[in-house]
Design a protein that fits this description.
Strands 6, 7, 8, 9, 10, 11, 12, 13 and 14 form a nine-stranded mixed beta sheet that branches. A three-stranded antiparallel beta sheet has the order 3-2-5, with no helix packed on it. It has a two-stranded antiparallel ribbon with strand order 1-4. It is an alpha+beta fold. The radius of gyration is 22 Å and the shape is elongated. It is built from six helices and 14 strands. The protein has helices at 4-10, 16-24, 88-91, 117-124, 146-151, 188-195; strands at 2-3, 28-30, 33-34, 41-42, 47-49, 61-66, 98-99, 107-114, 132-138, 168-173, 176-181, 200-208, 211-212, 221-223. It folds into three domains: 2-49, Roll (Structural Genomics Hypothetical 15.5 Kd Protein In mrcA-pckA Intergenic Region, Chain A); 61-125 and 214-223, Alpha-Beta Plaits (2-Layer Sandwich), CATH 3.30.70.580; 131-208, Alpha-Beta Plaits. Bound molecules: uracil. Uracil is lined by residues 103-104, 107, 187-190, 203.
């Protein structure tokens, strides 16, 4: 059960102060009856807002095909944001919709977005070792001996003391590879290739745990069940 003013504001419809006006205008019903008390509590399943059920009252989990050129930061000063692809009402929700881990501005591919902070913590925690798969193109031919070097768990990134966890490298063509990481150090894929003398030209995430992009076009998202990752 939620207070009606809290329900409207947490789902991004309006502020708690504005909710009073929405109720006075008869825009909110509970079991078909116009509600006028902002402090009244109701089950979201019984509520209609402008005749519609509340928008994802239990929370949001989305898989987005992040295009190149957008940032995962909430700070619009850092450039156009992935959040700007979403319906404006979702940007006004709280807790805030945020990405589960980040992709660099120049990286494309599978990005999860949610307002469930427990999910963010669980899916970004190094102890869960969730495999993330990247497709990289690089500026020079990749030698086969990189496969055991990446798998050894001894590769040290510039500026770091601890080595990277073992990573699976599959060479797809002389300058293209698939890299599977189970941790998320800052710019890790680019820095791993840099550590062996190659510069990443393009980077695209194809998989996060069991999730794949499927036929999502860049800039598109689809909703997921909140429990789809266990
Ligand atoms: N590794 C990177 O270097 N960049 C990303 O965006 C993700 C992984």
């Amino acid at each position: 059960m939620h207070r009606l003013d809290q329900l409207l504001s947490s789902l991004g419809y309006c502020s708690r102060r504005e909710a009073r006006g929405w109720l006075a205008a008869g825009r909110v019903t509970v079991r078909g009856v116009a509600a006028d008390d902002p402090s009244a509590k109701a089950d979201p399943a019984d509520v209609r807002i402008d005749g519609e059920p509340p928008d994802h009252p239990a929370g949001l989990l989305l898989v987005l095909h992040k295009p190149v050129g957008l940032v995962c930061s909430h700070d619009a000063g850092e450039g156009p944001r992935v959040y700007d692809l979403l319906p404006p009402r979702w940007l006004a929700r709280h807790p805030l919709v945020t990405s589960i881990g980040r992709l660099d501005k120049e990286t494309s591919g599978l990005l999860l977005l949610t307002d469930q902070s427990a999910l963010v913590h669980r899916l970004t925690s190094p102890k869960h070792k969730i495999p993330k798969v990247y497709r990289a193109t690089v500026d020079r031919d990749l030698a086969a001996d990189l496969i055991p070097r990446f798998a050894a768990g001894t590769l040290v990134l510039n500026g770091e003391a601890a080595p990277c966890a073992p990573a699976a490298l599959k060479i797809l063509s002389p300058r293209e590879a698939e890299l599977t990481l189970t941790e998320g150090k800052y710019h890790q894929a680019r820095r791993m290739f840099a550590a062996v003398g190659a510069t990443v030209l393009t980077l695209h995430r194809t998989q996060f745990g069991p999730l794949e992009l499927g036929d999502l076009a860049p800039g598109q998202w689809r909703g997921l069940a909140l429990d789809c990752l266990g």
